[in-house]
Design a protein that fits this description.
- The complex is a heterodimer of chains A (240) and B (225).
- With 240 residues, chain A is an all-alpha fold.
- Helices cover 76% and strands 0% of the residues of chain A.
- Chain A has eight helices and no strands.
- Chain A has helices at residues 30-111, 115-137, 140-143, 156-165, 168-172, 176-194, 196-211, 216-239.
- Chain B is mostly helical.
- Chain B has one domain (24-222).
- In chain B, 84% of the residues lie in helices and 0% in strands.
- Chain B has six helices and no strands.
- In chain B, helix 2 runs antiparallel to helix 3 (102-126), helix 2 crosses helix 4 and helix 2 (16-95) runs antiparallel to helix 5 (148-195).
- The chains are: A mainly alpha (240), B mainly alpha (225).
- Chains A and B meet through helix 1, helix 2, helix 4, helix 6 and helix 7 of A and helix 1, helix 2, helix 3 and helix 4 of B.
């Protein structure tokens, strides 16, 4: 009979490792769990407030930038219409008035004159009338009788109003609208960030509850109250 | 054997080190929220003031450039009208030296002077900025009729807005620096929590407290700007 080999030695038990804190979990008081819940809730509310405040703040910046763009756009349109009406069309219209007036005065003088003087005055009057006809052909304001007033001048204000009306969106542009929207959004963003103060106080009470177990219940209660206050402040800012 | 540190630390469950750490961490959170509010308020006010300053700069330019054509038209047209009169007067004077054509020269001179009188009146009327009854929108009327006093007032307002922006910019910078100090303090307090009660932990908690105190002081100094 042959000897059977000896059975292998059972493996040695594993060396004791570091204390497993999870193993003691069942022994922990429920207060620690409440502390964890309050702290986690404050973190969540603070994160929501921060994210919302960031969005609203960005919206305020966008509205203000829009106000500047509209201001520039409106200014460019206004200046261009004033320049064109008074420096281009107005000057042309005044040349027409000058020639018309001279022609009229020459003819009046011709009525009282005789001979060569009369002929020369009539010639000058006709020359000025030719000038008028030449300019009127290329002048929108001089060619349209709507712009002629009873005293014989041209109504540049009416012409300016018509020029402005050609681009009505420039006339109705009001940068104060996005300005007001930006102001409101900025106020809301600041109030939202300010709403994190009671949430931070709730966090303070939460960690105090962890640090001072003897008064944990009171600290946790205060923490919950401030957390609710912070959430209420958030809702109020959003609603109002 | 598993061991719960919380249970074995002290009869109350916490060491004074842990209690201080809890107080300081909680205070850091409150200070962070206050500094963040201060920084947000300051940055928004700075941005708003800069935006107003920008808009006023555009408005000032608009009024300078927009009122100039009206004034320029009035001035140039009046000059043209007066030049017609000057020509007429010059003819009348020159007619004395040329009696053979004096009758014609005087007639033309008188016609020119009469035309000049009328043209000066028309130039003045047409060069007047549009009024409320003109049909021109209020903004354009305001731009066309801008005066030096109004422009000076706008410039002063624009300068004030820039000053306000600078003040709130400085306040915001201080709040950000306070937040930076606070972040450093929070890191040190976190380090103290990880290291635990001991030499390194005590150094970390003292340094973290110092950073927290400095951040509070810096934040308070922002309010003095």
């Amino acid at each position: 009979m042959t000897d059977l080999p000896a059975p292998p030695e059972p493996p040695p038990p594993p060396p004791p490792g570091p204390p497993d804190t999870f193993a003691a979990a069942p022994e922990r008081d429920t207060g620690s769990r409440w502390v964890a819940i309050v702290l986690a809730a404050t973190a969540v509310v603070a994160a929501i407030l921060g994210a919302r405040a960031s969005l609203v703040s960005s919206s305020a910046s966008g509205s203000w930038q829009s106000a500047i763009r509209q201001e520039v756009r409106r200014a460019a349109g206004t200046v261009e219409d004033l320049r064109f009406t008074y420096e281009v069309e107005g000057r042309q219209a005044f040349r027409v008035l000058t020639a018309e007036t001279l022609a009229d005065r020459y003819r009046r003088q011709a009525d009282a004159a005789t001979g060569a003087t009369r002929s020369y005055l009539l010639l000058e009057a006709e020359a000025q009338e030719n000038v008028v006809r030449s300019i009127v052909e290329s002048s929108a304001i001089a060619a349209d009788p709507r712009y002629r007033t009873e005293d014989g001048r041209f109504d540049l204000a009416l012409r300016l109003a018509d020029n402005r009306a050609e681009n009505p969106e420039l006339v109705t542009t009001d940068p104060d609208d996005p300005q007001a929207a930006g102001d409101d959004a900025a106020d809301e963003a600041v109030l939202l960030v300010a709403s994190t103060v009671p949430v931070a106080v709730a966090f303070l009470f939460g960690v105090l509850g962890q640090g001072f177990p003897n008064r944990r219940r009171a600290f946790l209660a205060a923490g919950v109250v401030f957390l609710v206050l912070g959430a209420l402040a958030f809702m109020l800012v959003e609603v109002l | 054997m598993a061991m719960d540190v919380e249970v074995t630390a002290t009869p109350t469950g916490k060491t004074s080190f842990e209690k201080w750490l809890a107080v300081l961490v909680g205070l850091a959170a409150v200070v962070a929220s206050l500094l963040a509010t201060l920084q947000t308020h300051s940055s928004k006010r700075e941005e708003l003031s800069l935006e107003i300053a920008n808009r006023l700069s555009v408005a000032i330019f608009e009024r300078i450039a927009g009122s100039a054509p009206v004034q320029s038209f009035s001035l140039a047209s009046s000059q043209d009208a007066l030049t017609v009169g000057l020509n007429g007067t010059a003819r009348l004077i020159a007619a004395f030296d040329h009696p053979d054509v004096a009758e014609t020269a005087v007639a033309i001179g008188n016609a020119s002077n009469a035309a000049s009188d009328r043209l000066v009146r028309l130039a003045t009327t047409m060069g007047t900025p549009p009024g409320e009854e003109s049909g021109v929108d209020a903004h354009t009327r305001e731009v066309a009729a801008a005066t030096d006093d109004q422009l000076n007032a706008l410039v002063a307002e624009q300068n004030r807005a820039v000053d306000v922006a600078n003040r709130f910019g400085e306040r915001g910078n201080r709040a950000v620096f306070g937040l930076s100090l606070l972040a450093l303090g929070a890191v040190l307090l976190g380090l103290a929590g990880v290291v635990g009660e001991g030499g390194a932990g005590r150094i970390a908690i003292v340094a973290g407290s110092a950073a927290l105190g400095l951040s509070i002081l810096w934040g308070a100094s922002a309010l003095l700007v």
